[in-house]
Write the structure tokens for this entry.
Amino acid sequence: MTINGWLQILFFLALVFLVTKPMGVYMARVFNREKTFMDPVMRPIERVIYRLTAVDENHEMRWTEYAIAMLLFSAVSMIVLYAIQRLQGVLPFNPQKFAGVTPTHLAFNTAASFTSNTNWQAYSGESTMSYFTQMAGLAFHNFISAATGIALAIAFIRGIARRQMQTIGNFWVDMVRSCLWVLLPVSIVGGLVLVSQGVIQNLRPYDKAALIEPMQVQKTGPDGKPMVGPDGKPVMDTITQQTIAQGPVASQEIIKEFGTNGGGFFNANSAHPFENPTPLTNLIEMLAIFTIGAGLTYTLGRMTGSQAHGWAVWAAMAILFMAGCVVAYWAEARGNPLLAGVDQRVTASQSGGNMEGKEVRFGMANSTLFATVTTDASCGAINGWHDSYTPLGGLVPLANMMMSEVIFGGVGSGVYGMLIDVVLAVFIAGLMVGRTPEYLGKKIEAYDVKMAMLFVLVFPLVILTFAAISSVRTFGTAGISNPGPHGFTQVLYAFVSGAANNGSAFNGLTVNTLWYDTAIGFDMLLGRFFMMIPMLAIAGNLAQKKYVPPSSGTFPVTTPLFTVLLIGVILIVGALTFFPAVSLGPLLEHLLMAAGKTF
Amino acid sequence: MKKNLLTAFLMTIATTILLGIIYPLVVTGIARVLFPNQANGQLIEVNGKLVGSRLLAQGFTGASYFHPRPSAVNYDPTNSNGSQLGPTNHQLIDRVKGDVAALQAENPGTPIPIDLVTTSASGFDPDITPAAAEFQIPRVAKARGMSEDSLRQLVRQHTEGRQFGFLGEPRVNVLELNLALDRTPDKLASR
């Protein structure tokens, strides 16, 4: 670890702090339909969209209608994405002439993945998806799944803020305003900034470059394994060309981060120099991941009239974020003790540490910071392979997701996930003093806590069931690439990532199989929509309650004590639920690695 | 329900056209005008022939060139990936052991920088650390009949510091360094 490394991490945290208020104020204005500087441009477009889609923008929805509209929109757009993938062979913008995506379970998995804001990728973009599928299928879902998340968070906040009302807003209006006022302007400007740094943006066919020095590589046989001749020596092949994959990357890259989607244009995601060429693009991408999540804490404070509460939630997020940074940076910078004869120290001319699966321009500080950020939020973009992280370094992304990604979190989903934890925290505080818990003037009653528990329990239930089946049946274990406890971690990580709608992976796991494509597909859908419904139910229930003025028995939700209690609830709900599984994976591997064992 | 279903269909079409087609094409158009070189991948031509991209490493193996980091995918940009080997996987430990032995023979007694024996995340990390470039100077100098000092100076010219003085890590772009090597006049004719 270096002083410069810590400086970069703290600089990043300072930037997150600085964007929180402006972003939060702006979003509060957008969703309260107050005047903003974007109105002259966006208001006409908004009106046209409502006219074309038969939306009455003054119609208010109960939570049930809000949920139905959201589910219908998700279902229809998911089917369209499936169709685009299957039909891409006859659609435009396909210079590489990619055929329709096969097998069908891969197309299903990808459709579920992008609809649920997960962006789990069982395919490799540069060899599977046409430019049309990337733009109109995948990047499009980056917008609308993010907009859906923001809409739901706003609906939940309205539930807290409104008094004795039956409705929580209009899904279509919230979704469209998220797209037009929040996501689109930042994507246009941010995308162009990324291009200026070297992120590519074109519709060219792949270029073929003549190598300066031809390269000898071992031939791959028809079975996909390296070929060996009858004499036992490898069969070599001379390569003289490098095919350079191209595409409209920057426009997808920025919304991939800003909407915490995470699906890379290329297989290597933000480790690919065409997606993330410089330390500055790396910083912009990380900041984009946290901006909306951080801003929404301010929006929460503003719309509920308790700005201090918004900051108390922000503080809990920041503390958990820094804890992840410290552990990941420390673990990776120590390097891999099993590698002999190499220099893993930090010196003036190298950043040292565990460089397997990482890129030189990012080194230890920026690789581990990115890994922490992408899993605190539900992004899932990566700039280094988590599969090759040391056991404790890889535990940080896993643990972040197990806490249900409430640390700044996915756009929208982070805040409503966090607010469920807040409901539980005030409930526990209420139990301790023996009074009916209150939250910002609303009594938290049995129905609310039941729904909150449903929200909390769906998550581990889905993950542990699927992971358990995959660990004992051959259709699950066949996909494992790293033997020993690491193999179990690969499987566990996959289902945690799916249900948490993250999308990053321990990528050695072979997942494009009937079992994994289908199981992770449902894992993602359940983790998204089965958690949204109880959340909306709480919102609807809170909205119709009377306001109860705070009394001496009310537990204040604006104090450091509240922040500590909230962190405690997050750790207990996340960590204790998964501790047995974690001890069989990364913790065991760490102990065995320290003992010098390999697999 | 019925009205919302109709809206769901129409909304999917309307937003696909705006966000899925118009938006990326507008960004492509503006990028082409403002940043044509970057938008196309910073391609490098030598004598009118495309030889690569500044951002993608090529698999140099000859003694007279600097070598990039190992690649799990033969530096193939249509197949970007890392090794995906876990830290306790014996395949990783054995591979590094083999690479270490080869590098030690080439430059005995010098510690081997970690990035030279670990595969990158993309499969074509364009950069090596300054330490990894320094490690290779004796070999390249010998193969080209150049003095180590003049080579060191060339490496220094191609070393990029931290962005704005504090972001990222210092690095050396291998393809650009090797192209510069080929342009230097004092290379051996017998190479």
Observations:
- The CA atoms of residues 377 and 409 of chain A lie 4 Å apart.
- The first helix of chain A runs from residue 3 to 31.
- The beta strands of chain A are 207-218, 236-244, 342-343, 438-439, 442-443.
